[in-house]
Design goal:
alpha+beta; 30 strands; 495 residues; 29% helix; Adenine-n6-DNA-methyltransferase TaqI, Chain A, domain 2; 11 helices; Helix Hairpins; 4 domains; 7-stranded antiparallel sheet
Length: 495
């Protein structure tokens, strides 16, 4: 990675700021807005705008947005002195992708390297676990890569006889042929060897030409997924055989450039993972506070206990043929909640289905009101959130809807009660189905819930809102970083 000297000026407020990203903010943090001037060799200066958000160590992680066409991408600087008032210019270091050369006549990077078919740089591995030499059974996940199967599924789901399972040695790659289209492909870097289901495809790469991590990130990038979709046309469930994978084409720069690009992407991945961990901690904090205030179960509560059906009208969203109401016209359609859109105390704003306006009217009885509690029935039963005003009038598909009919209970309290570990355990015990857990509305109506004073409920909801603010900031950080990651991946792997 090549370094360039830049000048950092003590900045005043700028009228327009473009996509500057910094470290996650903390209590009492301040934001300084500035501009960096970069003078590349034999080129005109480039101006890069940014926001400075200090962490406790005064170390800053920045993604700069450039007003010119030059591909400046990352900076990892210690700017503790830069925050002090000064009229002097200070010199710091900004890193760039050394392979991304641009001509004077176009803004598109000129690719330096070769384009290859994956067949030229990958080799299938057919080694089986003969004699059961390896007992470490792993699964490949979309977000976590290789994980022990029992940890991922919370139970043993694999065969007792592991002789037919595929061996995956360190630095080999494995993918699920029917789920690689959603990112189920990963590098095995956990152990010297593990085994995976015979359903997986396992292969190695020619490490003299391509870094294993570079190949994986290509397959998980949008350009890679577009090629996967093309190669999967006409197959059952978009199943990508190894032969089809070998037909995909990869832009292959030098190993040094691959290493540089992997470092850039890994830096952003690290920031995303930190923000995700922060969100998990916020969610756990909300649960812990609930237990502190109201007890871990109805049995140890000091408050009056009643049935959920006594304090809320409980009914189910659209169950019978919901697809009859679907539309592909998302611009004019109305969002419909599914279990995928219900998180613990928050809405997951992605992967929506849409009802047509006519379908929405026909399913009027299941139209949502602000303040409704949505409860997941299948997959992760019991997971609950409250419908914000933004989603008033939307529909719900195969979700339990609890609409409070009492002035003595807040919907946020009901949702938090549902999300407790004790409640989740109870729901799992009462749920039916081996492949996918499912619980019925009658059981939920009869669940006993403590009814603390309204003042205590309001105190807890006030605490939740403070936690939500921090959670929202972390989620915004993830979204911004993901946009940057996708942009870099497009530059690296796209045409």
């Amino acid at each position: 990675m090549h370094a360039l000297s830049v000048s950092l000026l003590r900045a005043k407020q700028l009228p327009v700021i473009t996509n500057g990203l910094g470290a996650s903010p903390h209590a009492g943090s301040t934001c300084t807005i500035g501009v960096v001037t970069v003078r590349p060799l034999n080129r005109l200066p480039a101006r890069l705008y940014f926001k400075l958000k200090p962490d406790p160590n005064n170390t800053f992680f920045f993604i700069f947005t450039c007003t010119t066409q030059y591909p400046w991408v990352l900076a990892n600087l210690n700017l503790s002195q830069a925050m002090a008032p000064s009229k002097k210019k200070r010199t710091h270091t900004v890193f760039r992708d050394s392979s991304a050369h641009r001509s004077a006549s176009t803004s598109k990077p000129r690719f330096v390297g070769v384009k290859v078919r994956l067949a030229d740089v990958v080799s299938a591995s057919s080694e089986r676990n003969k004699g059961g030499r390896c007992s470490a059974v792993y699964s490949v996940t979309n977000s976590q890569g290789f994980v022990p199967s029992e940890d991922y599924f919370s139970k043993e789901v694999y065969s007792k006889d592991l002789k037919t399972y595929r061996v995956v040695e360190r630095n080999m790659i494995a993918y699920n042929p029917s789920r690689i289209n959603v990112g189920s492909v990963a590098l095995q870097d956990k152990c010297d060897e593990v085994v995976v289901s015979p359903l997986y495809v396992v292969f190695s790469v020619d490490e003299s030409r391509v870094k294993p991590g570079y190949a994986v990130r290509f397959l998980k990038s949008k350009p890679g997924l577009d090629q996967i979709a093309f190669q999967s046309i006409g197959t059952v469930r978009n199943n990508l055989k190894f032969k089809a994978l070998c037909q995909m084409r990869l832009k292959l720069p030098s190993l040094a450039v691959q290493e540089e690009r992997l470092a850039n992407l890994a830096s952003i991945e690290s920031q995303i993972n930190q923000s995700r961990k922060a969100i998990e901690e916020f969610d756990q904090l909300a649960k812990s506070r609930f237990v502190e205030m109201f007890g871990s179960s109805s049995a140890d509560s000091r408050y009056e206990v009643c049935r959920i059906g006594d304090i809320a009208d409980v009914f189910v969203g659209v169950v019978i043929k919901p697809k009859q109401y679907y539309t592909d016209d998302h611009a004019n359609g109305i969002k419909a909640f599914r279990s995928l859109n219900v998180g613990e105390m928050h809405v997951r704003d992605d992967d929506w289905v849409y009802f047509s306006k006519e379908g929405n009217k026909k399913a009027k009885k299941t139209q949502l009101h602000a303040g409704d509690v949505l409860v997941v029935r299948s997959g992760y039963p019991g997971t609950s959130c409250v419908v914000p005003l933004l989603y008033e009038g939307c529909n719900a598909v195969d979700l339990i809807i609890a609409r409070s009919n009492s002035n003595n209970v807040l919907p946020e309290y009901i949702a938090a009660f549902n999300n407790r570990s004790h409640m989740k355990s109870l729901i799992n015990q009462m749920s039916v189905g081996s492949a996918q857990k499912h619980f019925n509305i009658g059981f939920y109506r009869n669940v006993e819930i403590p009814l603390p004073p309204l003042s205590a409920q309001k105190e807890y909801v006030s605490f939740l809102r403070q936690v939500d603010k921090s959670r929202f900031i972390a989620q915004q950080q993830i979204e911004k970083l993901q946009m940057l990651y996708d942009s870099l991946a497009q530059d690296y792997f796209g045409d």
